[in-house]
Amino acid sequence: MARPYQPSLLRSLHALTALGVSAAWISGALVWLTADRRGLPLQWSWLQDSGGDWIDIHGTAGVVLLPIAVMFGAYALSLGRTRLRRAANALPLVALALAIGSGKLMNEHWLREGVLDHPVYAVHLLAWVLLTLSVIAHLCGAIALGGQPLLRSMFRLELRHNDLPGHWLEQVKRHVRN
Questions:
Q1: Are the beta carbons of 104 and 63 closer than 8 angstroms?
Q2: CA distance 25 to 7
């Protein structure tokens, strides 16, 4: 059986999106731990309200993630649209759009001022949970579909002769013409 091969544009955009989502997720968790702290046991009261720096870092992660997510979404809706028939592939994109959209609607001063009950913030927290769960479902779906060979194919650095970065624009143009 042939080893699975993932197009280099997919691998690149997927990796950048995964790194951006990871940075946003970690910084968002630190914002929640330091600025929100609802639901934490009393033993965690030693966490200081130093959420300001993490809020800025989280916002920066979101700003950097936005153009990457737009490019990945454009890829998914065009060249990768057949893969979106699987819910495990579509749901993370929907959750990411919800997280970025609600994040763009937030005011950075809300958390600094202790405004924790704003509806947009609630949607943003919900998007964070949905993104986490959908990424887990995405990984489980990839394992169920192709197992370790499929997962390894996303990390391979090999490139086929017609799949170099210089060919990406032609691949997109060819798809748009069809």
A1: no
A2: 26
- Give the C-alpha separation, 58 to 25, whole Å: 8
Q: Which two tokens stand for residue 118?
A: 């704003």
Which residue intervals of the chain are DSSP H helices?
A: 8-31, 51-77, 87-105, 109-112, 119-153, 168-177
Average pLDDT value for the chain: 87
* Residue whose C-alpha is closest to residue 75's, from 176, 178, 177, 155: 176
Q: Which residue has the tokens 């997280």?
A: 99
Round to whole Å and give the CA distance between 140 and 88.
Answer: 8
Domain boundaries of the chain, sorted by first residue: 8-39+48-177
Residue 72: C-alpha distances to residues 4, 48, 65, 92, 96 (Å): 21, 37, 10, 12, 11
d(CA 116, CA 85): 36
The pTM of the full predicted model, rounded to 2 decimals, is 0.86
Amino acid at 5: Y
